[in-house]
Design a protein that fits this description.
- The structure is a homodimer.
- With about 160 residues, chain A is mostly helical.
- Chain A folds into two domains: about 80 residues, Multidrug-efflux Transporter Regulator, Chain: A, Domain 2 (Orthogonal Bundle); about 60 residues, no CATH class.
- Helices cover about 55% and strands about 5% of the residues of chain A.
- The first copy, chain A, is built from six helices and two strands, in the order ααββαααα.
- The first copy, chain A, has a two-stranded antiparallel ribbon with strand order 1-2.
- In chain A, helix 3 packs across helix 4.
- The longest helix of chain A has about 35 residues.
- Chain A starts with 13 loop residues before the first helix and ends in a 17-residue tail after the last helix.
- The N terminus and C terminus of chain A are likely disordered.
- At the A-B interface, helix 3, helix 4, helix 5 and helix 6 of A face helix 3, helix 4, helix 5 and helix 6 of B.
- Chain B binds a DNA duplex (30 and 30 nucleotides) through helix 2.
Chain lengths: ~160, ~160
DNA sequence: ATAGGGTTTCCCCTTACTGGAAGGTCAAGC
DNA sequence: GCTTGACCTTCCAGTAAGGGGAAACCCTAT
């Protein structure tokens, strides 16, 4: 006898599936509604019932999301995961696209970060009203960011 | 001999304000509705009318947004901008908070980027079905990302 | 029997817009 | 005068990815 044999065979409620997968119950329902996962089986009481495979899938989704893949990407990855005939080329392509997108975002954010840090550095930040940050936000050249965000700088 | 002296004194329609400020007309209305800017004056025909100061404000908002400040932040910056008695300390604080937030996000994204790039490198990406990316997404230890990167995971 | 927890559906809130539909206005062209 | 087209107005819906909370049902324990 199993020391903790509750249900016939790894049949979990949505809450249990949530704790085992890391995906909140509410989010699991959302994924179902959004078509990311198939509608769960229902028990006699109408409750959703999840098996080990379902939990596995949820963890897959959880990790993919944690890596920043969009739900659209996740759906695609999931498809490729289930459908092993699909070539790994597809997966790699998706991953590399994501890396490229991340590189772009990181570069942009770094740029912005340095711009703001540069402005903040020039603001003495005391009780006096003068603040170069506001000055520059209010009077930057029309081109917006174009001239100011190179390196740490923001030379006006 | 202004080549384009149409209106009495820099009185612009919403479309003109849009082109001069870089903020789309639709977004200007949205800002008004959201309380970021005060309701514009109206002409006899009910059209919104903008003056130079309004356009200035819109550009301020545009640049602040381009630097990644949230609308809530922008409202605050705008308040400080108009209300010069406010100390520059406030502004600097807001800017440095934003820099810190950017630093966190950049670090997290870099982490994720390296994780994915590492996985992609191990995937030969040919026509064969085996793909370590899928393998690892599907079978990582329960703790999720814990073993592979340092970030808390990119929960938005 | 009653309390408590978990589950169900439902709808609204978020951020910062963007798109579209239905209708009013205005200047130009014929 | 009439039409066309480019504006403008309002309101409604939708996006990504859920979170919050209500009202009702179910199950278990005391």
């Amino acid at each position: 006898m199993n020391p903790k044999a509750e249900k016939p065979q790894g049949l979990l409620s949505i809450g249990e599936a949530a704790t085992h997968s890391g995906v909140p119950a509410k989010t699991i329902r959302f994924y179902e509604e959004a078509g990311i996962i198939k509608p769960a089986q229902r028990g006699d009481n109408g409750y959703r019932v999840y098996g080990d495979g379902d939990v596995q899938t949820l963890r897959f989704i959880h990790r993919s999301r944690a890596l920043g893949f969009s739900l659209k990407d996740v759906a695609e990855l999931l498809e490729l995961y289930r459908n092993r005939e699909r070539a790994s080329r597809e997966v790699k392509k998706l991953a590399l696209q994501h890396v490229a997108a991340l590189d772009r975002k990181i570069a942009e954010m770094t740029n912005v970060r340095n711009t703001i840090a540069g402005l903040a550095e020039k603001c003495h930040g005391n009780h006096r009203p003068e603040c170069p940050i506001l000055e520059e936000l209010g009077a930057m050249p029309k081109s917006g960011l174009a001239g100011m965000n190179k390196g740490t700088g923001a030379r006006a």
